[in-house]
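Chapter summary example: a protein plus fe (ii) ion.
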Amino acid sequence: MRRRQFLSGAVAAIAVGCTEPEPASGPTTQIRSTTLPPPPLPTLVEVDDQGIVDDPFEFGVASGDPDTTSVVLWTALGSTAIAGDVRLACDVASDPAFDGLVTSDLVSAAETDGRTARIVADGLDPATTYWYRFRVGPHVSATGRTHTLPGAGAGAERFGIALSSCQNRAELLRWDNHITLADDPAVDLVVWLGDFIYERNASSLEEYRALYREARGDARLQASSAAHPWVVTWDDHEVVNDYDGTVDPARRLDAYRSWWEFTPTRLPRPSSDGLRVYRFVDVGDLVRIVMLDCRQYASSETVLGSEQLEWLADVCNHGAAHTLLASPVIVSSLNVGELTPPYAFEAHPADQAAVIAALNAAPDPTVVSGDLHAQMELELAPGITELMAPPLSSSFPPDWADLLPFLPFASPSVVRAEAAHGYLRLDYATTGVTHEFVNG
Ligand SMILES: [Fe+2]
């Protein structure tokens, strides 16, 4: 190890709260504190090439589900990897040159996980930027950048959240929006509202994996994934269009499994019971982000299912200044008669009323939805704004797109509607929240 790396590693180790001598409280303690060995310093773990000749890091890196002291780091290996499990090193540092090494650990890219790998980097400082990379033999992945969240009471002054969904590969040029997202200095966290893939004809684990590999192989998605931590939920196309409880359970499990493999989440591996994806993320005292699952429990009777509805009412009661409800599916009514999708909240008034009741008890609520491949501002209920984040690439049907700006005349809840692409950014501050549609 180089001397500079050694010294900066020592500083970093202290910064992340490695074992320190006890504070002096008497003569005995003073003697002990001077004789304790120095705290262990992080060093780069060694990992051999395991027979891998070509660079296997063809899907880039990603981070996700951050909290105040940890974050999930992710990568996947390409077809050049050898059969079987592969040991990788994962380094985390306080600088992009990795001089200030914070941790270096081994992680397995298991064949049974589609040769994807994830590790929770913990013991980190709140509200801090870190850089990370994976290694095997001489091969080193791209460097990712991530952030931990501010702690409660830390007085976070501003926090930018980008939201988008729907990245159909049929509109490949629109994927340039990932570059804009990667380069947006006001973004601290990306919230993905679903349709990470479009299932096309996939119905088996390997077929779903192939779609994630196609998406993750795009350098533009790799850029936005490496630039920010992501919190991800799913919509319908991760399984099949407008699916419900009648879809083959084996197919659904394969779809969930591949989603989990290629998503930087700390959720457990899906089981035959499915996967609980709904969860919340607290950004200090500034905003609670509530992530919904509008598909897994949907039926002719409900969108969210009774358990998720009960949970929603509970988590909307909190002490942060703002509430962001991230709902893959539109919550407001569009009043478009027979065009109303059967899965919409509008078609399930009891669920819609329960969501509004939960939000009425929540501090300063905003709903953000996706799914419809349009960009909208709506009034869900008095005092509750719903924003529809634009799709990243998927297009509204061209024959109907020109009619979208007229939707407010037909639908009293719609303030503004248009066909657009990109992402929505919410800028949270102690003084309030503003939003900007970033279109490209
Ligand atoms: Fe979509």
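Key point: Residues 47 and 357 are 54 Å apart (CA to CA).
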